[in-house]
From TrEMBL:
Residues 69-102, 356-379 are annotated as: Disordered. Residues 359-371 have a biased composition (Low complexity). PANTHER family: KETOGLUTARATE REDUCTASE TRANS-SPLICING-LIKE PROTEIN, PUTATIVE (DUF707)-RELATED, OS06G0731900 PROTEIN. This is Uncharacterized protein.
Amino acid sequence: MFFLTAHRATRGPTFNDAPDRRFFRIWPMAALIFSVLVFLAGAVVAIQYKENFSIWQLQQKGTVATEKIRPPTSEVPVQPTEEPNVCEKKNQCRPSGSEPLPRGIVQDKSNFEMVQMESLGADPERNDDARPPKSLLAIPVGIKQKAVVDKLVAKFPAANFVVMLFHYDGVVDGWRDLKWSDDAIHVAVRDQTKWWFAKRFLHPDVVAEYEYIFLWDEDMEVDSFDPLEYLRIARREGLDISQPALDRRSQIHHRLTARARNVDVHRRFYKTSGHGRCYGNSTGPPCTGWVEMMVPVFSRAAWRCAWHMIQNDLIYAWGMDFKLGYCAQGDRRHNVGVVDSQYVLHRGIPTLGGGGGAAAPVSASAPTPAADRSAVRQRSSTELQVFNRRWNEAVEEDGCWTDPYPTTATNG
């Protein structure tokens, strides 16, 4: 530019100099406009960048703020992946205490099956699926009643029943000569009752493999009783709690348990003559949904419920008979019954209190058997009052429990 200007100055003006002058007059204005446009474009870009950067910063701050005010995990459930959710559900069903173990190794139930000496070298995983389902016969026994018990147990086939004896007199060796004795389970604790033994040695998880639990007194004559036929009837009739009917020569405390002729099962008793408490509108025990405690038979599900009802310190279980219907797995009017075609004779021999126990030396200061039996009856009556009080208190305290028999739970 400097060269051209100097050159024109030496030549003097010509015709073609006019466009050059116009060009040089326009150029500074064009350059200025161009510079302004470039500046404006840059400003626009800068503003957009700043706005975008500000928005990004706000978003980041919002994210941080959200993290800071996010409520605890317990309030906002986090959606777990599928695998942990499956494991969580499975772990909820684990037996307590088995959590450290792989699930497949856990055996949460037991039984009374014994390993026979002749099978010690056999395959422990041999297939036993062909075996018939077994039930359990549990009896409190004293050596004085050995002959009666021998006859009773002999009625129950070993292929279908496991036998468990509760020796309340502590004598075990005196039973060894009976051919079935070595296959029975013997538990010896002196001067304890059937329900004391049952609470401690018949836990539902131990007897869960047995289809039915026969929890019988020892003084039963079984000439007219067939255990397999009894089970067939109980299954057919859907009896979760039952008992064989009592021969009318027995000591019968409630008329419901007396044998009715020409029927297999009855479930209720109506007053026919004389004084009584059972009428046509009676829907509760001991008129219906009721069995006595001398020869009850429980399904495994009913026993699981009844076992929880037995109080550790109430060894005679008085009062439980009126509540057993709650364990009937449904309507007690249908699922509790007396099997008439299979009946027994109750001899009514007292055991504790100088009855069927082992003979013991008598001293001048020792109470007489009659006094012992009176004390037993007094204790039983007291236990009845205690059990009823505990039941009523439990009902009041448990706001989630609904009584399925609100008007007939205790009436006859």
